[in-house]
Amino acid sequence: MSTPTSATYARDVRVTWWYTAASILSLQVFGLGIWGLLIVLREPLPIAIVHLLGAAGSVASAVLLLVRYRREPLDEGDTTARRPVWPLVVAGVVSAVVAGVAAGSLLLGVALSAQALCLMRWRSGIRLRLVLLLVAAIVAAWVIEASRLNPEGYVAQVVGMGIFIAMLPPLTATSLWWWDIVRELDRARRAEGRLAAAQERLRLASDLHDLQGHHLQVIALQLELAEKMMGRDPEAAVEQVRAARASVDEARRGTRDLAARFRGVPLPDELANAADLLRAAGLTVDLLVDAEAVRAPADVLGPVIRESTTNVLKHGGGVSASLSLARHRGSWVLVIENDSRAAASPVGDGAGLSGIAERVGAVGGTVDAEHSGERFRVTVSVPEEVMA
What we know:
By secondary structure, this protein is of the alpha+beta class. It has helices at residues 11-42, 45-71, 86-103, 106-118, 126-149, 154-157, 159-229, 234-263, 267-280, 298-315, 353-361; strands at 284-289, 316-328, 331-340, 366-372, 375-383.
């Protein structure tokens, strides 16, 4: 049994996360930077230093909370889910209080504290109630500060700055809510892939059980009958042994046919499976398949597709790939192209290509592998007369 690990995501999902985290942090840093500049220009140096330390602590807490949010597991049972988050939240609230007190702003302290709370993962339904409560608290703090505590302060004089700081918590909550949706979609995609693999294994197990179970039962009965007849009718016993051997041969043929059926996937399906696998790994995939591709030799090109797909996953740049199968001048032409990490990619050095060339050459075909800029292309040509 595999041990659950922290969340790993496809490339496009990782890009979504970095965009989300960068947006949250950039808004917080920008707001605190503007506020800190006013503090430095208007307040004594010791107060400005305390405020900047509080602001830095708030940003550091936000970074750590985002890292923890990102690493929360995709599946149940991950031990990282049990790691305490409250110390980071408390550190964020304390830093917010320090920054707010130094700036003489109730709104700043409340808004940054709310920001720390919004960076936690809350259960469904709780997050919305929490955000509404925090927004109400921020508005109340804003009104109290602007009207009673500090009517000559930053919030009353620079309204836009107060609005910007007050919007940080709800913007953070909605950004992480959107990330949670993307995360759940990615998990659903993984679950669908695992379910398809499990169904295929169950189908294979069922077919194998039906085939072998039937033949083994017949063989056991024939051998048992031969044993009983051995003393009184040796000729009949020998005949039963011959029948058992025939049953063994039949079972062997059935097993071979079953294996061939699972290996002999039609090429359009083989290409579609390869494209799905690459897409699941986060690549953008273009697929072009001739309408008569089912007539192409699957025994020759099927292993080529599987080998090339593995090479793209192992050695490719992980961004894009294209697969095409078409007829051209009396041949089936398979082209698999992908971005590569470097000109010295192991793909180009022949990893698996020698086996492909040998298999294709046996039926009179050719293999061409080349780098073109940052792209790597494998072109396989097989005569049309090769039987599918």
